[in-house]
Amino acid sequence: MRFLLSWLVCCCVVAGRAQVPAAPPDSTKRLEILKADRYNFEKKDSINSFLSLAGNVALRQQGTLFYADSAVLNQLTNVVEAFGKIHINDGDSLHTYSRYLRYKGNEKLAYLKDQVQLRDNKGSVLTTSELNYDMNIGIAEYTKGGKVVNKKTTLTSKRGKYYDATRDVVFSNDVVLIDPENKMYTDSLQYSAKDEIATFIAPTRIINGKRKILTRSGYYDLKNSKAVFAERPSIVDSTYTIDANDMAFDDKEGLAQFKGNVVYIDTANGVSVLSDQLFANKRTSSFLATEKPLLILKQDEDSVFIVADTLFSGKISEQKNKYIPWLTDTTAKGWKAPDLKGKDSSMNRFFEAWHHVRIFSDSVQAVADSLFYAGTDSVFRLFRDPIVWSSDSQITADTMYLFTKNKKADQLRAFYNGFIINRTKEGAYNQVKGNTVNAWFKEGAIDYVRAKGRAESVYYAQDENERYVGLNRSSADAIDMFFENKKAKKVKFINDLKGTTYPIRQIPPDTDRLRGFSWQEELRPKSKVALLGSL
Q1: What CATH number has the domain spanning 292-535?
Q2: How far is Cα 248 from Cα 423, in angstroms, rounded to an integer?
């Protein structure tokens, strides 16, 4: 029976050729009939000669096999129209399925519709209602909505174009990518099924847990959980936002790098960081800011601005072995150990700054070589030649701790070689020095100062009309200096007082300066504009 069928088909083909023009010039592209259960030949006119095939139809063109329930082949135009369970096997590397097929053999163009599926040999599946497939160059395109599934990743769009050679798909119009970790929404996206890399070529929104990323270009390596974003992307999380010119992520390692005009805002704690480069570690909740970093601690009316060469921050609760520097006089009355582990604070974060540290707020300014600030106790720890200014007063020491309360300066402790200078409007300088100097603030201004340990003072006395009447130079175990309206108004000596008072017009040379006196106004940050301008 099979031999008879082949013989009849050949006879029909010969009969048809006797009456019509020859087959297409390129005989290598001619569709070859491999089998069919039934057939029927019909010659319409000089350019249409049809061979109807039914039942287990199989055709071949070079290395491509076509299967269908039924088909109509125009032998003269080399066009076939197939119905039923369509299957195109393109060299065993690509399999296409549908319920309807129209195929132009000379151009190798296929149009498929109804339950269309395109599968490659790596497991990727494209599903759509209609598909145009140029088998000559290996490009398939849909325009009425489609879906691509590659392992755990699903992409949908209204339009899409598949490139067989590279296994790339270009999606456009209402593109949605979903995998176990991400949801991506955009208007255009290129996806590599081979490498599982999504490349962004239009504004894109990425949802990753509580994190939302907005970008215009870049790529996301879904297999390795790595990404690079460009053209000023933004990240919005439940507790922070971050913008930069470029971003790079390694989500498996929990690492990220931000480059170019970086703006990090901790919305939960009122903290902002600006820099040209920032490295973040999600696992330790820490970040390192370099290249002109600026830290802003937001306060109601008097935010604190801090610049340095390098800035580091992390969560105290995540730093199990983190040493938090602390010096204090534990014998002081009412002393209470500070909470450094976050039990009494909502801001469980610390900041470290190194080299050329400069601080500005409306009420207090400072410089130092390095700084440590813990949000759990709200203390600025300043190291190596720190200087603090408040109004017309300057405080220096080897190390200083500036305590804040309700986001305002509350107390300052200067350890080792503490020295406070208060400049009067007439250009005179009241001074107090000691091994330690403690200053207390009221409404952001110095209220009074206590120097202890070989304490010394230089104080200009005034009468009831605020006229200067003399200079007092003294020493004692402890010296208190009281302020009023940001000016030194009274001095109190405690134990072992030694001193001399000179009339205002009879002050001996060099008596008006304590040893180590150095007024360093030129180092003082004058404004936040000047601070930012120095970056």
Answers
A1: 2.60.450.10
A2: 51
